[in-house]
Amino acid sequence: MRIGELAALAGVTTRTVRHYHHLGLLPEPARRANGYREYGLRDAVALARVRRLTGLGLSLEEVRDVLAARGSDAGRELHEVLTELDADLARQEEALRGRRARVRELLELAERGELPAEGPVSSELAALFGEMARAGARLPGPEPAMAAKERELLALLETAAPARAGREVVAALGVAGADPAAMDRMYRVYALLDELVEADVDDPRVARAARAVAECVPDEVLEAVGGVPEGLPYGGHGEGADGGFAGEVFADLAPAQAEAVRQAMRLLVERAR
């Protein structure tokens, strides 16, 4: 047989056959006088076995190990490789079930019209965003831009924070968000912060917004995040530009908004002492 006939018989391409030769998975056959490879039944049997092994999901390196074993070692080598493959497939299967469950959960939210634009997020955070949407709908005007920033930040924190810490923060926020009156107060704070977009850092509204922000942070949230770290940049004007993540958060705010948040953090530190 020519290489094309062998490949067609085994259901692979001629390029695959050449690749198997290059890796040593298939021995080089005899060649005709014109230099073309001449394949026989043994070559077809060997190629078919390689295809069966790769079809199970074995890597080419694992296939090489199985083929290299001889006698009773061949059976033991194949058993060991298949045992490892089975364990790996079980892990993949479990992960796939988890992913499918998560996708179904998100589809259910979408069908109810509750999938937030910032999604995908956890069902707990989606519920909180739903409460925020309802609070925003109760406003006479458009939703404050700061509310959208808050959702983006919460989605980022849920992804970036350690799993347990992220769940605790979201749970604490969910308890607070379940109170419509508390959520309405938070939206009034968002509106106050929106007013500071064009304000100077020494505008009297900055201190008023700072107090309102601090008053809206429940004790449960402070406990979930372990209090306000002393090292965060909440000092004077302009601080935090190079303060890592916190600095980036401040940089995304208008100067007066950032100052209001810094002052609120100072108030929270004092409250936590």
Number of continuous helical runs: 13
Q: Distance N terminus to C terminus?
A: 85 Å
Structural class: mainly alpha
Mean pLDDT across every amino acid position: 84
Approximate strand percentage: under 5%
Q: In which range does the helix fraction lie?
A: 55-70%
Give the overall form.
Answer: elongated
| SSE series | HHHHHHHHHHHHH
Largest sheet: none
> How many distinct beta strands?
0
Global Rg: 31 Å
Number of domains: 3
**Low-confidence runs (pLDDT<50, min 5 residues)?**
228-242
Describe what is shown at a glance:
By secondary structure, the protein is mostly helical.
Please explain how this structure is put together.
Residues 1-69 form the HTH merR-type domain. Keywords: DNA-binding. InterPro entries: DNA-bd_dom_put_sf, MerR-type_HTH_dom, MerR_fam. It is a single chain. The chain is mainly α. The protein has three domains: 3-68, Multidrug-efflux Transporter Regulator, Chain: A, Domain 2 (Orthogonal Bundle), CATH 1.10.1660; 70-113; 118-272, no CATH class. The chain is built from 13 helices and no strands. α7 runs antiparallel to α8. The protein is elongated. The termini are far apart.
Provide keyphrases for this structure.
elongated, mainly alpha, 273 residues, 13 helices, DNA-bd_dom_put_sf, single chain, Multidrug-efflux Transporter Regulator, Chain: A, Domain 2
